[in-house]
Amino acid sequence: MKKVEILGSGCAKCKKLHQQTEEMIKKMGIEAQVEKVEDITKIMDYGVMMTPAIVVDGEVKAAGRIPGDDELKKMLS
Amino acid sequence: MIKTFADWFVYEVLRIKQGSLAGEALDFFVYDSIKIFLLLTCIIYVVSILRTWLPPEKTRVFLSQKKSFTGNILASLIGVITPFCTCSAIPLFLGFIEAGVPLGVTFSFLVASPMVNEVAIILLIGMFGVKTAVIYVISGLLIAIVSGIVIGKMNVENLLEDFVRKNKGLKTLILPEMSFRDRLNYAKEYTIDILKKVMPYVLIGIGIGAFIHGYVPTEVLSKYVGGFKWYTVPLAILIGVPLYSNAAGVIPLVSVLTEKGVTIGTSLAFMMAVTGLSLPEFIILKKVMKTRLILIFAGIVSTGILLIGYLFNYLDYHKLLVK
Q: Shortest CB distance from A48 goes to which of B173, B176, B179?
């Protein structure tokens, strides 16, 4: 099972990315556990400076933006 | 071409009498709105494509290897193309410091980023003309660079919160390369996002401008805040700092004020105080630095803005600014 983390301290874009990621996971029919990371030190530990960011299985896939659907699909598969 | 369209729309389609006060105000409104909308769309799109090559995760590595003077200049320039929101001030600040970017260089970035950006530049060109835009950009960068250098010289690292200093050590994050299509897609989304946020302010600003143009007498404002009184610049800064807005909100407002006799130096000072210094940002920065450092930072930047304000009022007063 994939582990997906959404980094961001509660900004509007972070919520949007969280929602889109969950929708995409459902659409793709894959098993994944989505977790929101709001703690700033944890976010910094990933080396991310701009939120929202998406981390799949411990690897930062994108930071400071919401990936488009196609890109998101690639990241999750 | 836009002018022809505006004329056609107002006088032919809406059938408003040519030469009437309402007709001219509406013509001005339609023309200015379309012009600024087109400029914003094109420039934001291009800048956001370029930006995908320069995420802060990358620039901090680069900045940490620079000496202070060059570093301050580069940090300010990078600040111009990096979008800034108060919510990302902390991760940006910590990210830079942790990567070993000098404190002064980090401050240069922190001052330039909200004050000078593509939206501010376009709005200034559209509403004030190229000359004022150039003056604003150069003064803004100068303040960012000099403030950063001064803070760097002061040795105030001890005023950072302890955890910030302890956490030093480069954590490099290499983000996966984006495909060109992803870059275009990001630019498209970002442009639409910003336009949605900015256009209401722009339309209201131009609308008030078009209205006030003919109806509100100049004397009302200029009696209090216009002209060359000594206190207008500090007053503009004092009012500007607690006001929290971005360039998109403040520039249309200021363009209306200048129409009514507020001088160029006072307007510049006001715009810079609103965008470059903000109370919510100070409160957020409190998490990573002691109040004294925030006061030092605010003091130095305000002094810079004050000097710029006085300088341009002086030049304007002695008619040394070429129109």
A: B173
